[in-house]
Design brief:
Largest sheet: 4 strands, parallel
Radius of gyration: 12 Å
Keywords: Kinase, Phosphoprotein, Phosphotransferase system, Sugar transport, Transferase, Transport
CATH architecture: 3-Layer(aba) Sandwich
Strand order of the largest sheet: 2-1-3-4
Organism: Liquorilactobacillus sucicola DSM 21376 = JCM 15457
InterPro entries: PTS_EIIB-like_sf, PTS_EIIB_2/3, PTS_EIIB_3, PTS_sugar-specific_EIIB
Structural class: alpha/beta
CATH superfamily: Response regulator
GO molecular function, one term: kinase activity
Number of strands: 4
Protein name: PTS system, lactose cellobiose-specific IIB subunit
Shape: globular
CATH class: Alpha Beta
Strand content: 15-25%
Amino acid sequence: MSEKTIMLCCAAGMSTSMLVKRMQDAANEKGIDAKIFACPAAEVDEKLKQENVNSILLGPQVRYLLDNIKKKVEGKPIKVDVIDMQAYGMMNGAKVLEQGLKLID
């Protein structure tokens, strides 16, 4: 199975960096080959050019960008969703990883 790339999109990239680490730890524990990274909403276009992204998860604070980002990836095999607010608040890396992987499969 090839590497899965999950991009977390947030306002500035600070709170999600802790979540990225927890998601990466959960992926490693499960033996899942995943590349997970966070980027500020302002850098989404640039990251989509640089990375082979499979799914994009938006932090609850930027949920208003959902339709905008879905339009950016229209016609591409990239799914977009808003991170479950409870999982985000609890920094539950395993649950958010699962959400990102479900979008891909």
